[in-house]
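User: I'm putting together notes for a lab meeting next week and I want to include a structural view of one of the chains we've been expressing. I don't have a solved structure, so I'd like a prediction I can at least talk through. The sequence is below, exactly as it appears in our construct file.
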Amino acid sequence: MTTLTLETEPVAKQVTVTENKLIVDLIDGRSLIVPLTWYPRLMHASSAERQNWQLLGDGYAIEWLDLDEHIGIEGLLAGKQSGESQKSFERWLSQRGATTNS
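Assistant: Thanks for the context. Below is the predicted structure for the 102-residue chain, given as structure tokens.
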């Protein structure tokens, strides 16, 4: 069995979130494109919330403070989807509904 080792850490420089996709441009010229269905909080966010992101550190992860969502670039590169449980997501969604209806 072989193990993949990265020669350099993947680092994001730009993030674009469309209605259906998360697009992350890396400093080495690659772009990662994944469906928003991989990240339910992004999928249920408003356009303004999706655009309110920031890079953490030197670009090792993306954070959406409004959504309490953090996505690591290395995980994206490995094809990892959100690891949030359905129960946790449903709790977040119900709290979000309570906040927006207040």
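A couple of points you could mention at the meeting. The beta strands are 12-17, 21-26, 31-35, 54-56, 61-64, 69-72. The chain has four helices and six strands.

User: Perfect, that's what I needed.
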